[in-house]
Amino acid sequence: MISSSDALSLYVATHIARANDAHRSNELAWFRTGAPHEELNGVLYATAAAVGDAVVEFAGVAALWHSWPERPEFDIEAQLRARGFSFVEEEPVMVMSLARSAAASVTESAGPACIRRVETAPDLAAWEEIWSGEESNPATLSALAAAGLGSDRTVHHLLAEIDGVAVGCGAAVVTGAALAVEHIVTSPSHRRRGIGSQLTAAALAVGRQLGADHAILTASPDGERLYERLGFVRREQVRRFAPPEVG
């Protein structure tokens, strides 16, 4: 079974895999994609001594900062709050061995939607609009395309459609033996119909096809029970913070 230390390593690796600029040391890990969106840039861990360096590095960058309450060396909540950061969310980090998961028996077609991979920029713009709930932003779309289109992509974006209309999205981030299941979102009008389960199963299938051994995700309150049923287990909590607004 994947340990907490291994889980953090998987978490960092799969975030850095989507970046155009990243850093990782024993004291500090961060990634940037170039998108003006806080979920696509982040300080993944930092020691208290490294917070100042990270603040300089991320000046003016929309990003989420991670604090790990079960890891004293990376529990930087006090330092962030002292600098005016605000709490955004707390989620469990969950992991699963793909070889033994209950989801191995779940097919992508077991539900009301058709799940397909995004292959073009217009489809990726539709994906972005489902994920963000807003019109596609050219800078965000460009950053998503850099990691998510082409034969060497590390991010495999998924669209759920019913009668040709996009009603959900998800993503599989694959690097080496690690898969991150990300951005599982269903349109409000189509929730509680199993589309999130379909998207998750599809992301797991992508990971298996590309040789991943382990999967990792963070779960929303609504999603945690679903992921437990699929075979994911909690390893620890992560708390995310946003920097104070500038100007």
UniProtKB/TrEMBL annotation:
Per the UniProt record, the source organism is: Leucobacter albus
Tell me the PROSITE patterns matching this sequence: GNAT (PS51186)
Q: Which CDD domains match?
A: NAT_SF
Q: Give residue ranges for domain N-acetyltransferase.
A: 113-247
- State the top-level EC class: transferase
> Does the keyword field hold Nucleus?
no
**Record EC number:** 2.3.-.-
One Pfam annotation, family name?
Acetyltransf_1
The name of this protein is GNAT family N-acetyltransferase
Q: Please provide the record's keywords in A-Z order.
A: Acyltransferase, Transferase
